[in-house]
């Protein structure tokens, strides 16, 4: 059997090929890592500060109340939500604070729609002759705040997830659970009933001797 002879030149070429292949593998790995990092950066949601959200909505609410066309319930609902937002800013690690702020923003979306539907048409008629431009500015700021609230809810929900919140929110209500171990199948009940009847029959057959 002829064994190929390994020379120094062939061994050097082999080592050179191994080094080149490993170097190329490292380059491809680095390129793949950089492309994945770029893709993750492009897919990341831009971080918005909670202070900016509270400040923008507070300013729009103040501008919405320049004229007295909205009821007191509109002001109280939004101011109470802003107070919860300040609590969420102060307690940076609190999950309940940011959750309550998120729920408050979602509820004020509904209440603002009700307020605008009930009071906007009447206020527009009242302000046709006096302070018409001021009423339009005030109404525009109130509508703008309403349009921005779903976007703010989205970013607040991202903050809630960053603080360790879960998708399933538990409000502490009692839940009814069914214990399946307490139930038996119909077949099992039939088998237990038939075995009990057969056992009774055998005991009856094994009773004492008959008296004639």
UniProtKB/TrEMBL annotation:
UniProt topology in membrane: Multi-pass membrane protein
TM helices/strands, residue ranges: 48-69, 75-90, 97-122, 134-157
Presence of the UniProt keyword Transmembrane helix in the record: yes
InterPro entries recorded: AGTRAP
GO biological process: angiotensin-activated signaling pathway; regulation of blood pressure
Keywords recorded for this protein, A-Z: Membrane, Transmembrane, Transmembrane helix
Biased composition (Polar residues): 191-204
Pfam families in UniProt: AGTRAP
Region Disordered: start-end pairs: 186-212
GO cellular component: plasma membrane
Subcellular location field: Membrane
Annotated protein name in UniProt: Angiotensin II receptor-associated protein
Organism phylogeny: Eukaryota, Metazoa, Chordata, Craniata, Vertebrata
């Amino acid at each position: 059997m002829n064994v190929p002879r390994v020379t120094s030149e062939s061994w050097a070429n082999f080592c050179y090929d191994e080094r080149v292949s490993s170097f190329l593998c490292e380059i491809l790995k680095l390129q793949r890592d950089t492309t994945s990092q770029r893709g993750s950066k492009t897919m990341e949601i831009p971080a918005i500060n909670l202070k900016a959200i509270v400040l923008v909505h507070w300013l729009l609410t103040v501008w919405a109340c320049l004229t007295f066309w909205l009821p007191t319930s509109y002001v109280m609902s939004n101011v109470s939500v802003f107070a919860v937002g300040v609590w969420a800013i102060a307690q940076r690690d609190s999950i309940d604070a940011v959750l309550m702020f998120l729920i408050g923003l979602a509820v004020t979306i509904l209440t603002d729609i009700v307020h605008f539907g009930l009071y906007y048409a009447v206020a527009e008629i009242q302000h046709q002759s006096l302070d018409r431009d001021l009423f339009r500015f005030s109404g525009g700021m109130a509508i703008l705040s309403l349009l921005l609230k779903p976007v703010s809810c989205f970013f607040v929900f991202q903050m809630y997830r960053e603080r360790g919140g879960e998708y399933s929110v538990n409000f502490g209500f009692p839940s009814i659970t069914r214990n399946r171990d307490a139930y038996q199948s119909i077949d099992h009940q039939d088998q237990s009933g038939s075995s009990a009847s057969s056992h009774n029959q055998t005991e009856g057959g094994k009773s004492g001797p008959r008296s004639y």
